[in-house]
Fold these 3 entries.
Entry 1:
Amino acid sequence: MLFGCGLGAGLGFWGLVAATGLGAILQMTTPLLVALKVFGGLYLLWLAFGSARSAMRKSEAHNSASDNAPVSEGQWFLRGLVLNLSNPKAVVAWMAALSVGLGAESDWMGVAIATGCCVVIGFAIYAGYAAAFSIAAVMRGYAGLRRWVDGAVALLFSVAWLALIRSAFARGQSVN
């Protein structure tokens, strides 16, 4: 649940950035956007490497003593927060979501309500994931598919890394 709360806090941060118009400024500040994309891309590459390494381990090797090292509550929250904050494209998704639900005549209260609703929905989704994966049967099912899931996740993180890095250094195109 704490990891989900960290993810939700990161989601809320990007929502606030988009809702206050800083997202538009970020879109126009090319060096800052490129730096965020590069940082986010490097983080995605690190996640892809970790997922690929996990996929190559057999089930019994996956539960080594180092994997079971205690993680503090703050560390779980921080992991979720960093994961969502490292995605600079989230502000673009937020701007798109807010523009679909709001019109040019919307005031700050409408933007605040829409942003708040999206954040609440995000927290609910993350809490749902946490609750589902706290059920023993779900965890057993995941354990049986873990290597395939980790391999697929590694592939998805790699594709996302390539797309993000490519967009960061695209010439003659917008930096979206």
Entry 2:
Amino acid sequence: MAHAERELPTHLNNHHLDTLTVIFAHPTSHNIRWPDVLSLLEAVGTVEERHDGKFKVTLGDETEVFDRPRHKDIDTQMVVDLRRMLRNAGYSPKAPGNEV
């Protein structure tokens, strides 16, 4: 079942919007910083750091557990998972020129 595109919440700042855009960019960027992703996820969902160092993220109806990346950037599989979660929760980047 397709979800209608949700109007982006006003609590997303330009940094969050930039992170959202790069997550959905094709080809997939290999320079998406984990702290930026974490900040975005905290703005749109619920993030809980577990005792084992993993992050439980709830966004809309979905919950995923993510490992903290070994390096500063997230891997391609995490990008794929984030795209799915964000899209299913109604988030997607705005088309260029429609940022307002």
Entry 3:
Amino acid sequence: MRTLYHLWLSPTSRKVRIVLGEKKIAFDMKVEPVWERRRDFLALNPAGEVPVLVEPDGSAISDATAICEYLEAIAPEPGLFGASPREGAEVRRLVAWFDRKFDHEVTENLVGEKIMKRFLGMGEPDSRAIRAGQTNLRTHMEYITYLSERRRWLAGEAMSLADISAAAHLSTADYLGDVPWDDFPEARSWYARIKSRPSFRPILEDYIPGAPPVKHYKDLDF
């Protein structure tokens, strides 16, 4: 059985979980407290970051996008990287947008301040960073709306890793109740389609002790 080392509100871990679900690949999960810098985990990934996928033969693959590329190669259906080279380039561009830009501008300022600081013992959340994250989130919601109005899915006509990456990041902000869905109906409609997929359902069951999700988090109709 494959094992995925992850953290509950790690967007990139969630991305890999959804891809595994889409491709119907069975796996176990282990929460990895990366702040402890465990020697056994560093042996799997010297960077000390999740996600890490350990194959049945014991080999380890780290970095979310590398894992997703690997899963696409060993389980091509359903294809998540576009039907043509041009679509593939757009999928990868948007994956980088959310895994880098969204993560830096939104996820770090919201999840990092509200949740991770508590686990790391780094003091009280920085209200300025939280406000910046909430402001930046609106900009990204406008971009998702722009894409949703022009395409069936974010990168084209078929659902792809771009949608999964975007939804994985948004789901962490939504867990905290920070997504202004009512102001962005097109983005909300797109997210509802992702949220209702069987591969996404386990994400909606995540629960952090002492920090429960907002009431609408599990509601498929918001």
